[in-house]
Write a structure and sequence with these properties.
The chain is built from 18 helices and 9 strands. It is an alpha/beta fold. It has 2 domains: 213 residues, 3-Layer(aba) Sandwich (Rossmann fold), CATH 3.40.50.300; 100 residues. Strand 3 and strand 4 form a beta hairpin. It is globular. The two termini are 38 Å apart.
Length: 412
C-alpha cells in the first residue's frame, strides 16, 4: 500500500470544540457524527448544545414557540424500516381513490412542521440494525425520512462509540459514513470535571457568537475554487474510498459530496467574523475537514490553503502583475500552491473588470513559471481558463481583453 494511503487516525477534539463544530455543521447543513468512548458524555454534549441554542433564541425571541428543540431519536431502539419510516396506512383521496402512505413515528411529528427549529439527534446510531439505518439514510442528504419532509431548520447530529471500544451491533457502512462529517470526541479530566459541576450547562458566552449567523444556502452553494483546483491537481484523492482503510477505522474519503461539504465549511468559517477571533477555530476547522476527507487529504489541502496567502499576494498581483513574486519552486508545496492559486485568482471576488488584465498577466506568468515541471504548465493554465470561461460574468469581462487573448494563445 502507498505510504500516503495508510490510515492516519484523526486528531480528537474536546467538549467545547465539539460544540462549536456542531454549530458550524448545523449552519452548513452537514450531518455531524460524534465518535467517542462509551460513557464519555457525547449525548450530554448534544443536550448542552441544544440548551445553548435555546438560550440564544430565548434571549433574542419573545415567544417560547421560537425556542430551539431536541428530538432524541435513538437508533438502538428502532426495529427495522417501519420503526423509522412509519407504519403503512391507506389514505382516502376521495372519489374512490386510495393511496398507500405511512404514519410517521410520534417522535418525528414536531420536526415535520416547516417552522420547527431544532436538533434531530440519532443517538447510538451504529447500534441501529441495518434496516433501521437504511430507512434513515435519506435524512442525511435530503432531509427526508420515508415520505416525510423534515423542517429545513433541522440540524442532524449523530453519535456512536468508537470501533476500538467493541460496541454491540454492526458498524455503519461506507455509503453511510460518506454522508456525514466525523469528529473524535475526547475529554480531559479537567474538562469533564468542569462540565460535571456545571451540569453540562456551558454558558453561551463561552463560545463564539455564531448561533445567530445565517445558514449556508447549500442548494446554491458553488464549490470554493481553491478546492476545485485542488481536486484537479490531486485527482488521485477523488473517489479514493478504500474498503481496507475503512475497516481499519478511516471515516472520511474524497468523494464529490465530501469535497462539496468541505467547501461549505471553509466558506462559512472564512465568512464568520466571530470565528476569526476564536482561539480554537483552526482546530475545529481541521477536525471537520479531516472528518470529511480523511486526515492525509484534509491536512494537505488545508496546509496548501493556509500557505497560499503568503506565497501569492493578491494585492501585489492586482497592483503590479508583471513583478508580483511567484512561488519558490524549490519549495515542495509550490506546485500545489500554483494549482490552488488558479482557483483563488479566478474567484469573482478577485477577478473583476478592474483587475482582469492583471490577473491574466499573472496567470500566464504562473504557467510559465512551472514549465520546468513536465506536463504541468499547460494543464495549469487550462484549469484557470476553464474557471474563467465557465463563469458567465468572468467570460463577459474578458471577451475583448488583449491580456486574456495572450493567455489563451500561450496556452494553446
Amino acid at each position: 500500500m502507498d505510504d500516503n494511503r495508510k490510515f492516519q487516525s484523526q486528531t480528537p477534539i474536546g467538549s467545547e470544540q465539539t460544540q462549536v463544530a456542531g454549530i458550524i455543521a448545523g449552519k452548513c447543513k452537514i450531518p455531524l457524527m460524534l465518535h467517542g468512548s462509551s460513557g464519555m458524555g457525547k449525548s450530554a454534549l448534544v443536550k448542552a448544545l441544544s440548551r445553548m441554542w435555546n438560550q440564544y433564541l430565548y434571549n433574542s425571541c419573545p415567544t417560547v414557540e421560537d425556542a430551539f428543540n431536541l428530538i432524541d431519536f435513538r437508533m438502538s431502539d428502532r426495529d427495522g424500516i417501519l420503526d423509522v419510516r412509519g407504519m403503512p396506512m391507506k389514505k382516502d383521496l376521495g372519489q374512490g381513490q386510495w393511496v398507500t402512505c405511512t404514519a410517521p413515528p410520534i417522535e418525528l411529528l414536531p420536526c415535520l412542521d416547516p417552522e420547527w427549529k431544532g436538533i434531530l439527534f440519532f443517538d447510538e446510531y451504529p447500534l441501529g440494525d441495518d434496516e433501521a439505518r437504511k430507512a434513515g439514510m435519506r435524512a442525511l442528504t435530503d432531509n427526508i425520512i420515508g415520505e416525510h419532509v423534515l423542517s429545513p431548520n433541522t440540524v442532524i447530529l449523530l453519535a456512536g462509540n468508537q470501533a476500538k471500544d467493541r460496541p454491540i451491533g454492526a458498524r455503519i457502512s461506507g455509503p453511510e459514513s460518506m454522508r456525514m462529517a466525523h469528529v473524535i470526541v475526547e475529554q480531559t479530566p479537567p474538562q469533564w470535571a468542569s462540565l460535571a459541576v456545571m451540569g453540562f450547562k456551558t454558558e453561551v458566552d463561552s463560545l463564539p457568537d455564531i448561533f445567530g449567523e445565517p445558514e449556508m444556502d447549500a442548494e446554491y452553494h458553488c464549490v470554493d475554487r481553491r478546492i476545485a483546483a485542488f481536486v484537479t491537481y490531486r485527482g488521485d484523492y477523488f473517489g479514493d474510498f478504500d474498503p481496507e482503510l475503512f475497516n481499519e477505522g478511516k471515516k472520511g474519503f474524497g468523494s464529490g459530496r465530501s469535497f462539496e461539504y468541505a467547501s461549505r465549511v471553509v466558506t462559512f468559517i472564512e465568512g464568520c467574523d466571530a470565528l476569526k477571533s476564536y482561539k480554537h477555530t483552526a482546530e475545529v476547522k481541521s477536525a471537520l475537514i479531516t472528518g470529511l476527507l480523511g486526515k492525509t487529504v484534509g491536512d494537505e489541502m488545508l496546509a496548501l490553503m493556509d500557505y497560499m496567502d503568503s506565497m501569492i499576494d493578491i494585492e501585489e498581483v492586482k497592483n503590479d502583475p508583471k513583478n508580483a513574486p511567484l512561488p519558490d519552486m524549490e519549495n515542495t508545496m509550490s506546485i500545489g500552491i500554483c494549482w490552488m492559486g488558479m482557483g483563488r485568482l479566478t474567484d469573482p471576488k478577485n477577478f473583476t473588470s478592474e483587475t482582469a488584465d492583471a490577473m491574466c498577466i499573472y496567470l500566464r506568468r504562473l504557467g510559465e513559471h512551472v514549465k520546468v515541471k513536465e506536463g504541468i504548465s499547460h494543464d495549469l493554465c487550462h484549469v484557470g481558463l476553464n474557471m474563467i470561461e465557465s463563469t458567465p460574468e468572468l467570460a463577459g469581462i474578458v471577451k475583448d481583453s488583449k491580456e486574456y487573448a495572450d493567455l489563451r494563445n500561450w496556452k494553446q
